[in-house]
Amino acid sequence: MAVEDVANQKRVLVVGALGRMGEQIRAQVAIHPELRLGAALERAGHPDLGSAVEEDVVVTDDVKAALQGCDVVIDFSIPTATLTNLHAAADAGVAYVTGTTGLSVEERAEVAALAQRIPVIHAANFSLAVNVLGWLSREASRLLGDEFDAELFEIHHKAKRDAPSGTALFLAEAVAKGRNQSLEDHQVLERAGDIGARPDAAIGIQTLRGGDNPGEHTVMFVGNGERVELIHRSATREHFASGAVRAAAWLVGRGAGLYPIDQVFGLK
Ligand code: NAD
Asked: Is the pTM higher than 0.90?
């Protein structure tokens, strides 16, 4: 690469840099022509703080120092870390891409408020295919109507902290939108005991956990004597990381605002 191309590359701060996704993000940044790793942030007390992830990048827990000289943050960590680091990025005027899931309604509102100060993308899933599945789920729900019962299930690796997955909630939201329903009013997250007949408008979400599975989601529309199933299966985390890195390159230089991932993929 020419010296001027390297000089023009935007610098990325990776939050959760030594996590499962952090490792994939660093690998995708390394091969992106417009981006380079600027800093790597980890939680206080992480045993590998101070180790080098690249020749000139050492893992730190000091967010203010890490933000210096960076153009964009990519964060896949935990909700409390995302909120803390997003505040710091807003103070520093640095763009922010995050895929952290499990945020509460209040935490999501805080993300939206901070996006009035800097450009932000927060997506439950950065895979192009999953975002297309969201679109298909909404349209199937709209076209099949209330004669078909909507049920979703997801499976993820056993270390996943939040349930149901952010992607399952995103897909369930798409189903609800297709029927002009509120997901909050109709989601059913647990079934046990003498639960009686299924309410017609219910949107069921079942969660499985085990092994090292990076994520599978099935959206079912169950009718009388027939069933439609829409399925996405991840075999690796690479496509999540490449989508997030693509979003980061897209976001640098834009005005403040909360941008939907669909816009990055041109799905609207
Ligand atoms: P992980 O546990 O492997 O990695 C999280 C990392 O964040 C860890 O290294 C941890 O030490 C670090 N961390 C925790 N607190 C921190 C802090 N205060 N500052 C900096 N770093 C901190 O988890 P993972 O599998 O990489 O998943 C991370 C998140 O990304 C989860 O919420 C998961 O659901 C989500 N995820 C989203 C997508 C998507 O496409 N949106 C895809 C996969 C995973």
From this structure: yes
